[in-house]
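Exercise 7 asks you to align residues with tokens for two separate proteins.
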Amino acid sequence: MSKVFVDTNVVLDLLASRQPFEMESRMLFSMADLGQIEIVISSLSIVNTHYILNDVTKTEDARTIIGKFKVLVDTHALTDKIIELALNDYNFADFEDGIQYYTALESQCELIITRNPKDFKKSAIPVFTPKEYVIQLSSQSKS
């Protein structure tokens, strides 16, 4: 089973029903629900997702949504090592992208799934959009 890291933007696409991206994210997380892939996210993603959901729904609803979502993913802790690596890597213009990248590496994921692959240009592991990854898995299962 593939172990994949999913960026916050893909999580938000699903949980905040962001169009036109929700369906691709739904398909990705359905694969995790069916045991076809293992999804890892950063603990920072949980915090950021709650913050954004809290703006579009009630606080108690945001917590309920995240609580139900949490059963689909493994959450990797944000550690001092990850913070130091991200702080010292100037390949990432966005510090949060560095956090996501080093969390993926530290949790030994095979690839990163994000809607912004350009943010991970120098990644040592493959980077896919949700759509690209779903298409790739579909074509592999047909082979």
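Second protein for Exercise 7:
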Amino acid sequence: MSITTLTYDDKGGGDLGITFAGDWLLGQDLPSVDSIVDRLKQSPRPERLVFITDELSNWNTGFIKAVIKIIHAASSQGIVVDETGLPEGARRLVALAFAVKEREGARRGHDEKGLLDQVGEATLRTYEEQRNLLRFTGELMLSLSRYLRGKATYLRSDLVLYFQEAGAEALPIVSLISFLIGMIFAFVGVKQLSLFGAGIYTADLVAVAMVREMAAIMTAIIMAGRTGAAYAAQIGTMKVNEEVDALSTLGVNPIDFLVTPRIIALVVMMPLLTMYSSLMGILGGTLVGLMMLDVSLVQYTQQTISAVEMNSLLGGLFKSLVYGSLVALAGCQQGMACGSSAMAVGQSTTRAVVLGIVLIVVSAAILTVIYINLGI
């Protein structure tokens, strides 16, 4: 078994001899060529680089990689490279590697940017994204006005399909999440309120929380990850396939044809899904309450009905309209802003979900403050 070695020595006449010995194979612990690269940068620099491979045994790409790195370093310093000492096969591979000159700027840069540069670039990106979102919102408002005046071009069959996708097909996941959320609220409420002998008020806790806040916001988050992402992926794929450009070429406004029907479908279905979510959450809380409290179904139901006021119900439904609009807006806007590659479709889908959830949380905070000041 041969031992892999790499040595170099200065020869007379300004030559630098590099000796390779042993096996140079990928997967082995090969010697580093960094010391040779450093030597080529030091003064006095050699005039010529010579390879000595008399003791070289087996070799593959690991040997070629080391040789190319040394030749690159020597060429950058203006040193002549004598490749006659390399094996014939290695010379052909090296010649092939240098046959086409590397395009300028092809290598990925490794410049590290300072903190202020990164913050500045992030701020500019955020500002540009907000401008694009505002511009898209304006185009959507114009499209909605055309839709209301009967001037928009769209397929009614597509609108019916969007209603089904945003409504009936979302019921299973909404049912599961809402039912479990209601159970969790009821379990926490029973554990805490029973300490004060007020376990029956668990019904109030679950009913008010679901109807006023949780049903709307949980349904919106579910739809952001489900329908909003689907909108971004569908429209983004159409952009990659140049179908959006084809619509424009045919004189069809892409916003009217692709965006407006999707937004209308989700906005219309969100209040219905929210009411259904509230019902499933209350049912989940009822199940836990009947199991853990010494109350009857009639008592629990009466307590729930007395706790829910019309203000809470309408306030939750209004929030669902706002959340649905924001989720649909984020999904469609990111889809229309998608690039022209498969990777861009994935990125736009991710951004749609993130933007949708951020808009939901921000709007929820704003609406909560408004509700408190208005006494709703």
